[in-house]
Predict the 3D structure of the following.
Amino acid sequence: MRDFSNDHSWMSINTATVRKAQGKEVPLLDILDACARHQIRAISPWRDQVAAAGLQAVSRAVRSHGLALSGYCRGGMFTAVDDEGLARARDDNRRAVDEACELNAACLVLVVGGLPGALEGKAGYHDLAHARGQVTEGIGQLLEYARERKMPIAIEPLHPMYAADRACINTLEQALDVCDLLDPAGTGDIGVAVDLYHVWWDPKLQAQIERAGKRRLLAFHVCDWLTPTTDLLNDRGMMGDGVIEIPKVRAWVESQGFSGYSEVEIFSSRWWSRDTDDILRTCVERHRTVV
Amino acid sequence: MRDFSNDHSWMSINTATVRKAQGKEVPLLDILDACARHQIRAISPWRDQVAAAGLQAVSRAVRSHGLALSGYCRGGMFTAVDDEGLARARDDNRRAVDEACELNAACLVLVVGGLPGALEGKAGYHDLAHARGQVTEGIGQLLEYARERKMPIAIEPLHPMYAADRACINTLEQALDVCDLLDPAGTGDIGVAVDLYHVWWDPKLQAQIERAGKRRLLAFHVCDWLTPTTDLLNDRGMMGDGVIEIPKVRAWVESQGFSGYSEVEIFSSRWWSRDTDDILRTCVERHRTVV
């Protein structure tokens, strides 16, 4: 396993982690400047942040700072109540691939969607198996497009508490089943993003990481699970503040040959109340000591 | 599949559902009276409620009302930081079996425990695999005792969002693995409690229900998953108010030969603000229409 204690060259900052500071939105270009100040050499930005700043402006800033993208957040949301919705999702995902290419991302991360409409409070249908079918089909279509553009796509299994409204792929096993179905040869064009927040609890985690192997392990995200957790979305913990055995799982991932970034992705109202430098300084320190 | 539309003879009320009404605790004996008023013929009471009312008093009331117990909540919490803690858990679980026998419960439901201390906010250790080992050992010991007393024990896999602090058995597959390990002959002395709130999201749900079969299906709990869910513990939905496909799963369970009660278990600050008769009336109506 790589030694992270001396530097943070393998830390990436998912820009959601500093999306807000002192309670206010932070523009993406300011986040990039802050990352540069802290000698952070990789990020994973969100599409809405990129859109707000302008793709070309972000692309220039990424290049001028010499930043790598450990991933691009996010494609997905493949489910819909009708064909028009499915077509919109298809087109939007193609644009996400194009943007990921422009930014030279390591992969496009997919949050696949749950029951359509559920995120807005009213599910258009309740048939979870149907949603999963739409997701598999949507990923299959996107894979063709992404292959042409040479952009790997990474299915991120989300914690089962998001099955209804955000993603109906909820375990690494399920994500790998989809990968194997769509890419039986294991080309590396499609794989998984292993986010510890979503998968840490899984009794099959180690076995499924071994099943994934190097070719399917496209991204590795870290944060922590707090006890108690007071909000389903925005109470994720800073590494070291919760119960996840981060180094143990990192060892499993690296023993498969994964040699990419540990991407820090923390949705936390608590941390978003602090200032950007404070958040980043803490990420760096924890990356050295508990990741 | 049984037709529930004409009566509610196969509905059981888990007494947590009416633990509070209009914001105030309701004594268990009052809950039993209320169930009788609504022609409810089965309940599943909680140990703390029974202790507050007195075991003998509850036992008499159960008999005089002619109530069946679809289960007894709950044994478990097997994990501990030291041998004394493990011994305390063992003794307490034996008492739970004795109480379940006194009340003639169909089974003792087990919420197996997570990382010890996590529920109080500070986990005594973080090794989830170790917790799972303690749980398997604890259930194994309890099974011997429960067999002597002829009380079936039912492992309830809890939603993965409770893995840290309430139960580190989080899928039906994992629960059945423990059952198979401890009872390879499939005697029916140990099985599972299938609570839809905890397992509805699982892509392997149907397959694992089939694997369980009649002998391992000891209890079936219903409520609903709301979108959004605003609290990890006390925002469960009344059947029909959320996204769970209850009849679909009930059909799977019954096709294995399960012919017991559908036990309504709703932890909900929202419902606990209403009055007992209102809550029970709604349970009966939903049991007839959407379960």
In short: Chain B touches chain A through 34 residues (CB under 8 Å). The longest strand of chain B covers residues 190-195. Residues 11-289 of chain B form a domain with the TIM Barrel fold (CATH 3.20.20.150).
